[in-house]
């Protein structure tokens, strides 16, 4: 068969459902082969949007999302999504085209060494030089993308290779079971926890990638140990749990850091070095147990005394089976910290000021969303507020990027979430800066008849950097811009547009949109003065309770 037909069959064998992207002339054989497949092509308006959608598909399903571009500028537009998936541990396959490699017809027009470019951004990158190699390259790409730690992979299919004939067959797909931790490590972990007086549990990004929720909840319920999360660990355990003491949205100074500083043992589950460390180790200080699929990357602030390496859920189950409740455990301080955190994050939830302050925004979004509703956050200072104040009830219902932390990903991520879960409520939450970086994908969302709400948090500036600028004592400079009329902007794409003019209208507008089909864009004026008052001044002066 033709090599491009074989490529499509290899993707079908991997159970690929969608290919997100923008084809070019170098992809035409591939495109012709795709038209007879049950794989659906999702045509986007920019390769960056396609890459973000593919990465988020991978994040939500555990299966590699697939995206497609042509050579040259199409492929270079995948650089940011590649880094987004690689740092965020999201399985994704990028397929790019290329000019013929056996003979040249246009010299070096548009030719960039994409394989070399992708080398530092991926787990695996190959140019396919023969149709006979397609099955092995595709199988290996998916294996690398999906195994722990997941990430981005890339295959380049030159147009002459895509058009040639091949007689090879597909490789059988063998799913490898993850290894489990050895008994000695489990026993040592149990002993360390039982010997501690103030143990504390940290849930990180790795725990959100696999279904560890039930095992962790059982461990918490049995032991009574309090837990907190990193930003990308939100929702692994229902954050309404009485033992939840907060999210490490800031590197220091927040209330829950009082509990971290007091702990004599931190059980660190699913720690990923791409997230800012929520605690800093010191020699002779707090002990740390590292529980993850892979061993720790040791650095000056992270050098765990014990590593329990293997399937996370199985490790927690083994520990839970053996651990015994200790009368020496003292959780009273953590209970008081929980009360402080709960009181603090609820402040401002009913504030009537307009434009809206972040605390009221977060409160209204939480009220509007069902337990399994998904919010997809772009990157801005509001991400810190949602991490700290928004309670996640289920895994992967708060999609934020605390790895590459790129702007422009919020809208495409929400679109992918709506594609994967068409019956769940989905809201994209974007700053006006981040929204405009990929706002053209509104056309894609309307064309696909998605049911989606987009909140544009408008402050007519790059608010995150303004906050940092103020925190460093600098005068406001260089960060203000203008915006289009977002209501008219929505309508010109065929979406529905709304503008919030008083605070009490936000919740009712979201609820109204949830009852209606289609794409809804809501312009939400924001007042970020609370950033400096709370996150810079108040937390800097807080004193840990005794």
List the helices and strands and how they pair.
Blueprint lengths: L2 H11 L4 E4 L6 H7 L5 E4 L3 H15 L3 E5 L3 H4 L2 H10 L3 E7 L15 H5 L5 E4 L6 H13 L5 E7 H5 L19 H13 L3 E5 L1 H5 L3 H11 L3 E3 L14 E4 L8 H7 L2 E5 L17 E6 L13 E4 L2 H11 L9 H15 L11 H11 L5 E4 L4 H8 L8 E2 L10 H11 L5 E6 H6 L3 H7 L4 E7 L4 H9 L14 H7 L3 E4 L5 H10 L4 E7 L3 H10 L8
Parallel strand pairs: 1-2, 1-3, 3-4, 4-6, 5-6, 7-8, 7-10, 8-9, 10-11, 11-12, 13-14, 13-15, 15-16, 16-18, 17-18
Helix pairs in contact: 1-2, 1-7, 3-5, 3-17, 9-13, 11-13, 12-14, 15-16, 15-22
Structure, briefly:
With 546 residues, the chain is an alpha/beta fold. The chain is built from 23 helices and 18 strands. It has 3 domains: 161 residues, 3-Layer(aba) Sandwich (Rossmann fold); 156 residues, Rossmann fold; 191 residues, 3-Layer(aba) Sandwich (Rossmann fold), CATH 3.40.50.
Overall tally of structural domains: 3
CATH class of the largest domain: Alpha Beta
Query: Which spans have pLDDT < 50 for at least 5 consecutive residues?
Result: none
Span of the ends, CA to CA? 74 Å
Could you name the CATH topology of the largest domain?
Rossmann fold
What's the gyration radius in Å? 24 Å
Strand arrangement across the biggest beta sheet:
2-1-3-4-6-5
The number of distinct β-strands equals: 18
Shape: globular
Structure, described:
The protein is of the alpha/beta class and 546 residues long. It is 39% helix and 16% strand. It folds into three domains: 3-163, Rossmann fold; 183-338, Rossmann fold; 347-537, Rossmann fold, CATH 3.40.50.970. The chain is built from 23 helices and 18 strands. The protein has a six-stranded parallel sheet, with helices on both faces. It has a six-stranded parallel sheet with strand order 9-8-7-10-11-12, with helices on both faces. α2 (28-34) links the parallel β1 (18-21) and β2. The N and C termini lie far apart (74 Å).
């Amino acid at each position: 068969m033709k090599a491009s037909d074989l490529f499509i069959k290899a993707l079908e064998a991997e159970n690929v459902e969608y290919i997100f992207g923008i084809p070019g002339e170098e992809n035409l054989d591939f495109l012709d082969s795709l038209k007879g497949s049950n794989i659906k092509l999702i045509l986007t308006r920019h390769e960056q949007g396609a890459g973000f959608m593919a990465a988020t598909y991978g994040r939500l399903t555990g299966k590699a999302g697939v995206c497609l571009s042509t050579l040259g500028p199409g492929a270079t537009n995948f650089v940011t999504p590649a880094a987004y998936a690689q740092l965020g541990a999201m399985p994704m396959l990028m397929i790019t085209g290329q000019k013929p490699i056996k003979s040249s017809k246009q010299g070096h027009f548009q030719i960039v060494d994409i394989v070399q470019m992708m080398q530092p951004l991926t787990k695996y990158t190959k140019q396919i030089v023969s149709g006979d190699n397609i099955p092995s390259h595709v199988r290996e790409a998916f294996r690398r993308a999906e195994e722990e730690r997941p990430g981005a992979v890339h295959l380049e299919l030159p147009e002459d290779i895509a058009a040639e004939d091949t007689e090879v067959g597909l490789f059988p797909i063998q799913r490898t079971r993850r290894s489990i931790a050895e008994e000695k490590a489990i026993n040592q972990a149990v002993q360390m926890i039982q010997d501690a007086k103030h143990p504390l549990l940290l849930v990180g990004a790795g725990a959100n990638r696999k279904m560890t929720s039930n095992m962790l909840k059982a461990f918490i319920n049995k032991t009574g140990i309090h837990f907190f999360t990193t930003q990308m660990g939100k929702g692994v355990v229902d954050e309404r749990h009485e033992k939840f003491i907060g999210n490490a949205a800031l590197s220091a100074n927040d209330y829950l850091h009082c509990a971290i500083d007091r702990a004599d043992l931190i059980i660190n589950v699913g720690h990923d070095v791409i997230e800012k460390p929520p605690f800093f180790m010191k020699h002779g200080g707090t002990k740390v147990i590292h529980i993850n699929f892979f061993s720790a990357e040791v650095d000056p602030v992270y050098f765990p005394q014990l590593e329990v390496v293997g399937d996370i859920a199985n490790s927690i189950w083994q520990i839970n089976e053996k651990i015994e409740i200790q009368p020496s455990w003292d959780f009273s301080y953590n209970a008081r910290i929980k009360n402080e955190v709960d009181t603090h994050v609820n402040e401002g939830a009913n504030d009537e000021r307009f434009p809206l302050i972040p605390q009221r925004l977060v409160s209204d979004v939480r009220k509007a969303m069902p337990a399994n509703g998904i919010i997809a956050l772009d990157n801005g200072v509001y991400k810190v507020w949602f991490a700290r104040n928004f309670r996640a009830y289920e895994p992967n219902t708060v999609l934020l990027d605390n790895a590459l932390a790129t702007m422009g990903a919020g809208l495409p991520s929400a679109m992918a979430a709506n594609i994967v879960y068409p019956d769940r409520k989905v809201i994209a939450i974007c700053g006006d800066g981040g929204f405009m970086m990929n706002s053209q994908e509104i056309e894609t969302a309307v064309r696909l008849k998605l049911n989606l709400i987009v909140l544009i948090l408008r402050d007519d500036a790059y608010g995150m950097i303004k906050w940092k600028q103020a925190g460093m004592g600098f005068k406001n400079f260089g960060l203000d811009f203008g915006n289009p009329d977002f209501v008219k902007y929505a309508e010109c794409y065929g979406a529905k547009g709304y503008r919030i003019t008083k605070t009490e209208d936000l919740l009712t507008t979201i609820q109204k949109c949830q009852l209606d089909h289609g794409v809804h864009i809501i312009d939400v004026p924001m007042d970020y003065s609370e950033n400096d008052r709370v996150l810079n001044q108040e937390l800097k002066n807080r004193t840990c309770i005794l």
